[in-house]
Design goal:
Length: about 525
């Protein structure tokens, strides 16, 4: 159907074809080309040595997967009513959805997710009051890279998108329907002011299109951002391949051939035919495994925390770096500067300014960890067994188990944005004070929380829809698996003390963690 003019040879999907207009969009585009220098899994490569793939690789992978998704949905007639309501041809929908896939990650900061948390804390410092209120409101349902995507799309990519014959209003509504939905609900003047600045000549037509087809854009967005989407499919396949783990051995063709979009109570939803139950279960189990044993590996979590704290300290000492983050987030950065706003720039800035952070012993040790892999940190638990075996002691076991579940509830419904940071930092302060007073030790915490049970994907039995977790005991059980240990790691700084001595006192220190947690709750959530 499409005439591909170039092909990327991809070790995950094989040959990924791109059209002439896509080549023109990709080449000489600073905002897309910089993704070649943004690690998809941050410093995971210091643990899983093959994990050197980038956000650019992933973006092409999502383009490939969304193409297969749309083609499959077209064959089984799932798109008919959606295309009819949009008054859009199938070929135009596919063309524009491929571009949505290409640009869905352009807002990522260097090292991808770890540095997002920095911007979540800094965003209130925006001088423009409307902009500050707007972005703070977005943090309720957006991660900071999604906020960056919004501004970059409108300020840096819009002209190129329109000039190449794409439907900018369709792309905006698909990627950012939540912003339009919030504006429609609240009638906020702040939202209106910012949106008119971002879409000076398109705002009225864009709002009219969204209001006419809001449920269509909501489901198209879910093909890029939901519990089962093109983004997560490529994540699982690509991250498994490069990390060298076997979780990506999924029959994606069978999944997509049994994928449907259904309408219930005037809302579209993603559904699978029940005959694909086995492969659907394998997908969500594999996703659970890759989170637990790759993304949330105890050492990967430590490296994520290390790079975030090093950059935070650098910003604290060298304030002008904040300008780069703000300029990038709000689409004010020049193209030539965007090209170098990447992992290498951040590492270079940290190394060149290392003298500024030497006054902080903990931060200096994190510098040595990142650049030399000199590890002075002991994790109180690494795997489920380490944690479970440490709480098997008498009357304290029930107390610790109940508190673990309570802690998980504190984090599980939060995305890794400002809310999570505030709770984690508060808990860490309480724990550091307690451990220093009790044991004379310093510590840090890295939060790694996620919900493994899908909430917006269903099986269709022919007569009714059934949520996957209700239909499959295996999927439903993942919630019980995830609370076997807290959604964070606690690392003891071991410079002046013997690591073996800390290891011997691990059980007692885990009790200190829960004592500090209860103290934090009593002081902050009365």
């Amino acid at each position: 159907m499409f005439e591909y003019t170039k092909y990327f040879k991809d070790p995950v999907h094989g040959y990924i074809g791109v059209t002439e207009s896509e080549v023109k969009f990709i080449d000489n585009n600073a905002w897309l080309q910089r993704l070649r220098r943004i690690s998809h899994l941050a410093l995971c490569k210091l643990v899983y040595i093959g994990a050197n793939h980038t956000r650019f690789d992933h973006s092409l992978g999502v383009l490939y997967v969304i193409t297969k998704m749309i083609e499959s949905l077209h064959k089984n007639s799932s798109l008919e009513s959606i295309l009819g309501n949009l008054d859009m041809e199938y070929e135009d929908c596919l063309k524009n959805m491929r571009l949505v896939a290409l640009i869905h990650d352009v807002g990522h900061y260097p090292f991808s997710h770890p540095l997002e948390l920095i911007m979540a804390k800094l965003i209130y410092k925006v001088e423009n009051r409307d902009l500050a209120r707007f972005t703070n409101s977005l943090l309720k349902y957006y991660k900071t890279h999604e906020i960056s995507n919004l501004f970059i799309l409108c300020k840096k990519l819009k002209e190129r998108i329109i000039s190449l014959g794409y439907d900018f209003k369709f792309i905006f509504c698909t990627l950012h329907h939540k912003v339009l939905e919030e504006f429609d609900k609240s009638k906020s003047k702040v939202y209106g002011n910012v949106l008119r600045e971002l879409l000076p000549s398109e705002i009225d037509e864009t709002l009219e299109l969204y209001r006419k087809c809001n449920k269509e854009f909501e489901i198209l967005h879910k093909l890029i951002d939901s519990d089962f989407d093109a983004d997560r499919v490529d994540n699982l396949l690509r991250d498994s391949y490069y990390a060298g783990v076997g979780y990506g051995a999924i029959d994606i063709e069978r999944l997509l051939n049994n994928l449907y979009l259904r309408l219930h109570n005037n809302q579209y939803y993603i559904a699978f035919d029940v005959k694909a139950q086995g492969e659907v279960e394998r997908f969500f189990l594999a996703r659970y495994y890759i989170y637990r044993y790759v993304y949330h590996h105890h050492k990967v979590a430590l490296f994520d925390e290390a790079i975030r704290r090093l950059v935070e300290k650098l910003i604290e000492k060298k304030n002008e770096i904040i300008k780069d983050f703000f300029d990038f987030t709000f689409g004010k950065m020049k193209d030539e500067n965007a090209l170098t706003f990447d992992d290498y720039m951040v590492l270079n800035e940290i190394y060149r300014n290392r003298a500024l952070i030497e006054d902080d012993e903990l931060i200096s040790s994190l510098f040595e960890l990142v650049f030399q892999r000199k590890d002075k940190f002991f994790s109180l638990w690494k795997r489920d067994h380490d944690y479970i075996s440490s709480i098997e002691f008498g009357s304290k076991k029930k107390f610790v188990k109940m508190t673990t579940e309570d802690i998980y509830e504190t984090f599980r419904l939060r995305r890794e944005n400002l809310g999570t940071v505030i709770v984690a930092e508060g808990l860490e302060r309480s724990l550091r004070e307690y451990l220093k007073s009790q044991e004379g030790l310093d510590t840090l915490i890295s939060v790694k929380a996620f919900s493994p049970v899908p909430s917006d994907v269903y099986f269709h039995t022919g007569r009714e829809r059934v949520c996957i977790s209700e239909f499959s005991p295996q999927i439903d059980s993942l919630d019980k698996c995830i609370v076997m240990k807290p959604p964070f790691y606690v690392y003891i700084y071991c410079k002046d003390c013997d690591r073996e001595k800390v290891k011997e006192q691990k059980d007692k220190m885990i009790l200190h963690v829960f004592t500090a947690y209860l103290k934090y709750l009593s002081e902050n959530f009365k």
